[in-house]
Amino acid sequence: MALHSPRMSTDFDIIVVGGGHAGAEAAWAGANLGARVALVTLDPATIGVMSCNPAIGGLAKGQIVREIDAMGGLMGLAADATGIMFKTLNTSRGPAVWGPRCQSDKHDYAGFIRRAIASRDSIEVIAGACAGFLIENDRVLGIRVERDRERFGVRAGAVVLTTGTFMRGLLHTGDSTTPGGRIGEAPADSISGALRESGFELHRLKTGTPPRLDRRTIKWDELEPQLGDAAPTPFSDLTDRAAFPALPQVECRITQTNADIHDVIRANLHRAPIFNGAIESRGPRYCPSIEDKVVRFAQRESHHVFLEPESLSDDSIYCNGISTSLPRDVQERLVRGMPGCEEAAVLRYGYAVEYDAVRSHQIDCVGMTGRVRGLFLAGQINGTTGYEEAAGQGLIAGYSAVRFARGEPARALSRDEAYLGVMMDDLVTKPLTEPYRMFTSRAEHRLILRADNSPDRLTPIAEGLGLLCDDRRAAFENRRTSLQEIESRIDPALARAIVQSDFTHEDMARALPDFDPGVRLTAMAERQYLGYIERQRAEIKRQSEHERRRIPEGFDFAQVTGLRAEAMERLAKHRPVSLGQAGRLEGVNPTDVTLLAIAMRNCIASC
Is 199 left (phi over 0), alpha (psi -120 to 50) or beta? Predict the structure, then answer.
């Protein structure tokens, strides 16, 4: 991987700060558009690192990975190439809420991402810290990079910030507090100050990670196995099914906590940073630490813990279910109290990380900030959590930054086009008090936004944006042809059978064995959900009038006669771009939207 020298040319189309999942997708999207990209990262060796659980996908998250792939992104390809256990979640329900997931080899995954970035001549990696921004007339012109006490400027038409948990990051384990973005890596302290100087509102958030155990010290064979799918499904439409999965597949194991462990935790809550005041920020409510679980669910005598291998090349086991920042001695008692782990050795102790994030009402639906034009934010800096949410934001911010630099209009994804559109709209319209995670329940059009039909929804959009390579374009054309062929093969008897409640994907495979399973699933789901889909599309059409009615830039909400104070405050703070988005703001009701529409009409008439 070629590294940048400050003596080399420092003019780029876009600059991406950070080499995590958001940064990698932003840089990749920029390169797909033919842009010259500077990828600035503290340590190029950590590009693509999986900081927490080396798992990709899951409920709602799997849909995001499929959407990233449909738009030419990296994550699905990386997951397919490095997955060591594939399993589709929620298959007892309909395809609309299936969640493809895989456990990846964490070393191979990061290596795949680094090789992909290195394969693009238009991406130049710069080792160093972002020490500030070059801003003129409220437009970003580049950044200042600090490396080995030397500072130099890097200029570009747009900048994408993907700082993860590194902005003023603090790591907590018991009484020990260490500056860092993740274990063994220094924080990025300068960026927070630079953002505050530019007028941005920041807040503190928290996330955490569990201990890692040495598999050789676990009574592995005595524990209940958790198996992957017998016939796994790839994330990417470019993955060769004949050679998939690429790596040997593994099993996970399941154990649990118990009442004795919970007593130990309760006896040491005064040593837990989230309870003794050392951490004041909010963590993800849906993924609480084990000490938080013990307090919040006091009636529960046990919690499941999934023991998940992190790699084929080492013996590290991720303890999914006991994220913790308790002191090391308490963590050892916790671990060794679980069945099968009585003699387990801890390879790395769990910790919590506290970090700065930008309040997300300050961005628009493509991630650009309102205060500084050309400055885009993606990933945990916007208050989200999860690799998939970060990567999706990186993809959107990456292609949008290039379009901005070229003077082209923004292309946001709407709530009825993608889970990515739901996420970006949520970030703009909903105040975050804890890290944001995607759920299927957040998507009101989830029958349309299925994992299986992601290419049909988004690949044509990606084609229009210029994001597709020849291979992906050809794969989409093959998929479209196959869907047409399947439709021509569905006779009246099969059509009646498909809509029966007991008809399964296995039945579809027996009826039409010659087709790709993913294409076959889409054909089946479209027929099974046909009535619901038609109703959803009718509702989307009804709502589209409000979505099309754009609020003029700089519109004075104080001039709206009769508008409630709370609604006026919310509208002025979030600056919605349409009546539809205004109606989704917390504290804005339908009457407020009607008054706003009247005021807009009067404003246009008077002009």
Answer: left
